Design the sequence.
């Protein structure tokens, strides 16, 4: 289990849950806003939005292997990793690609339509050459990382993207500040791309609707924010757990598209 300390502590710690003991704790020298584990490289990649620092911590030695700092990293909005790359969502430079092992910049992914702020990053676990990027203005791009080009653009949200998640089926779930969740279907011909067909609902819908229909929140509850910020999937029972900004958790049936419970 990875634990991040208080914002001012600059600490991360790893615990062995089975043995119920601390494996190691290390001070990375700056506040930590993002921490992602790379099991392939056996490191934890940490990012500090205030400092603009990326630190790579070895899981083998429990020490900082390398650090890199750049002014363009300040204000980073998200961080993720693939087998050999670190992806950093920056306010002014798009998504910067950095080598895990060497700490040098190897590429840059930008919205071809103009300067846009990336908000959420997700490596396609079914094809690590693809990075899914959700933007502040609601657009989603799928990039070919090697070619540094957009291979698919998906528009459906009218608010900034705040969550991206892949289902075991390969489908993509996105959530935005428009209080809408979208399930993007997989292109059956290519097998690893996303089609424009989607299933939509809003978090405020209590009864569930037929897939493919967009539904709107209750006008009597204008102050309740039903934007989803995170998803967890129970693949065995085909259930989707959505955590909403208003403090509510909704449970959806992935096969029928109906809401099962709310708590």
Sequence:
């Amino acid at each position: 289990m990875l634990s991040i300390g208080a914002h001012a502590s600059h600490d991360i710690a790893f615990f062995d849950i089975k043995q119920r003991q601390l494996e190691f704790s290390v001070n990375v020298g700056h506040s930590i806003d993002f921490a992602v584990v790379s099991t392939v490289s056996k490191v934890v990649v940490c990012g500090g939005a205030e400092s603009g620092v990326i630190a790579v911590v070895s899981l083998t030695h429990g020490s900082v292997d390398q650090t890199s700092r750049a002014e363009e990293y300040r204000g980073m909005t998200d961080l993720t990793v693939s087998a050999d790359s670190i992806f950093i969502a920056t306010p002014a430079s798009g998504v910067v690609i950095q080598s895990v092992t060497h700490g040098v910049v190897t590429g840059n992914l930008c919205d071809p339509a103009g300067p846009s702020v990336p908000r959420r990053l997700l490596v396609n676990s079914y094809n690590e050459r693809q990075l899914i990027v959700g933007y502040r203005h609601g657009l989603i791009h799928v990039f070919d990382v090697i070619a540094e080009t957009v291979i698919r653009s998906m528009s459906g949200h009218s608010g900034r993207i705040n969550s991206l998640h892949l289902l075991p089926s390969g489908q993509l779930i996105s959530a935005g500040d428009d209080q809408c969740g979208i399930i993007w279907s997989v292109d059956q011909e290519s097998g690893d791309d996303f089609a424009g067909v989607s299933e939509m609902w809003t978090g405020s819908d209590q009864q569930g609707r037929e897939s493919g229909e967009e539904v709107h929140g209750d006008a009597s509850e204008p102050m309740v924010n039903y934007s989803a910020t995170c998803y967890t999937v129970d693949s065995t029972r085909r259930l989707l757990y959505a955590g909403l900004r208003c403090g509510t958790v909704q449970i959806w049936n992935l096969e029928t598209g109906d809401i099962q419970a709310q708590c």
Remarks:
- The chain has no helices and 23 strands.
- The domain at 1-80 is CATH 2.40.10.480 (Thrombin, subunit H).
